[in-house]
Amino acid sequence: MRGVARAVAFVAVAAGLAGPARPQAPASPASGPSAQPAAIPAEAFYRRPEIEGAALSPSGRWLALRTSTGGARVSLGIFDLQEWKPASLAARLDNADVADAAWIDDDRLVFTTADQSLGVGERKFLPGLFLVPRTGGTPKTLIKADAFINRNDTSKLLGANHALLLATQDQGGHIVVGQYEGSGDDGLSGEFTHLRPKRLNVDTLRVTELGDKAPKFVKRWLFDGQGRPRVAVTGSQGRSAVYWYPEATEAGAAWQLLAEYNSNEPPFTPQFVGPGDQLWVSTADRSTGTSVLKRFDFAKGKPANEAAVATPSFDFTGHVVTESPGSKPLGVRVLTDGWNTVWFEPRLAALQKEVDAKFPNRSNRIDCRRCEQDDIVALVVTESDRDPGQYWIYQGATKQWRALGQVRRAIDPRQMGRTTIDRVRMRDGLEIPVWVTHPATGSKPAPAVVLVHGGPWVRGRHWGWNADAQFLASRGYAVIEPEFRGSAGFGQALFKAGWREWGRAMQDDLADALKWAVAQGGVDASRVCIAGASYGGYAALMGVIRNPELYRCAAAWVAVTDPLALFNVWGDHNDLHSEGRRYALPLLIGDPTADVERLKAVSPVHLADQLRAPLLLAYGGADKRVAPSHGERLREALAAAGQKPPQWVVYPGEGHGWQKLETRLDFAQRLESFLAEHLK
């Protein structure tokens, strides 16, 4: 990387747990490889990380650590930062993993569960919610983890159609949960229509309804530090609205409408509620076309003129940093090319400067307790393009730095490839970001893989360690990842330029990015394959159709092979919400009635006679987003056209992406062999 971007403008706002490993010192990006990359097993890239996440307790005395160290399951352990030793094993389950955890107070935590040994289609339960003492013991169920609601259950436990929305740390044992309501006659089944907030007392299990007289069809809520609903965002029939509930409003008063708009084009997006009547929103800056963070001006009924935080060349993506929910904003964490933090407090800005000096050329994130005191306790997560991450603790009372552990012990940063980002001009003048992960070793120019992100209306990646890119780089490939038009996060011009351009200008961006990479001198133009999942798989198939001269082969997994099938016209079951199919997809892809011929013209199923390159196709047997029938229809079309059959695999139980370790390893081996065969 050419230096983590620090171009962030802001206006200061007035207002038995296994012991931690000792990580190596951060490797310099210029360090050379110390071993042949092929010696790194695929499992090092695709197994669960040793550290899944960590959170400081409200006082800063304790650290909750989710880790797979010491067992097959992800457990929840507590580390005593004062004594500097593991204190207790708070939760370890035989049949599930701890998926997420949050402190209620210094003595109790809540956590959700998952089963990472199963494919998505094999999951029999939803996450649930459990309360556990810091010292461990039998977890107390707050929300049942069953996937199916028992209508005859008269217990006080909330059903699995509830989820944690906010751990308030209000010292009263209250949290905020949400009930997901559906369109079915029973209010539970069918498509998601409304999220109903409730206050739950974790001691008595008493539930209190929140959001009195709120509007219908609320899909998103924002709360203040006391867990009171302050913002409601609705969505129905292609229209959305934002409502506000002022702090001083008496109970039972009406919600105030702030904006109503087409769901695809919001005038602003609520981000967080500050103390008092502060609402912070992101909205497009007319001069740059990217979104910025602003305070909402209630007197004028619109966002303020001046930006509080701006991230030039990037849309605002981030969140407020506080010591506890709803407390004084200390800063804002933002995503540019990598993660950065805009600190409002000089003490924390100075600490960030110290952290960045200690861990140079890296992305460094600070979470703290007693943040404005001399005895501050700070959790620092530091990562780079070559290092999956390290956890450190800084204790202001002793000014000590202590290493907690590595995210992935099996990864040696010195053996990883370097990742760069450049803005590249396309044939029509539009500039797009292009990521390149350079092979850690091997001769140049190197064979290459154009790796296309899914979505496609999302951001592909950020600067940091990426398993897929680094796995391919460890096998000697340059990995080119364009943020093609239609990608989110880089301004409205780039985003909207991709509307209705599947298989057309979006495809040209991939070709132009490859040609640019070749011109830089690091890529062998005669040895390139294109690969991706979901939309990325579609783009891989269209790549060898539209530009057969550029690519030797294509690898596509959970790939769309017919855009029309996303509208359900072929009878495929999919989990896309009917609102999205009715109101969003026609705008983003094309109208399934008026644009049938236009969509068929960019459909791999209908262009199978042009698919002459070697193909690797893989699907999840339980995928509800892109059903295996997408691939089956393409195989039938290839056979009818007399083309060579693709390499083919279906993973039973897997959904729209690989969850099981054995699936990830099997597919990695297949992909590695496929690329080696065609890019020798």
Q: Termini, distance in Å?
A: 28 Å
Shape: globular
- Helix-strand makeup class: alpha+beta
| Main pleated sheet | 8 strands, mixed
Biggest β-sheet: strands ordered side by side in the sheet = 30-31-33-32-34-35-36-37
**Number of H- or I-type helical stretches:** 10
Radius of gyration: 25 Å
The tally of strands reads 37
CATH topology (level 3) name of the domain at 417-678: Rossmann fold
* Percentage of β-strand residues: 25-35%
Helix content: 10-25%
CATH class of the domain at 417-678: Alpha Beta
The whole-number mean of residue pLDDT values reads 89
CATH architectural grouping of the domain at 417-678: 3-Layer(aba) Sandwich
Look at the structure and name the CATH superfamily of the domain at 417-678: Alpha/Beta hydrolase fold, catalytic domain
- Low-pLDDT runs of 5+ residues are 1-38, 147-152
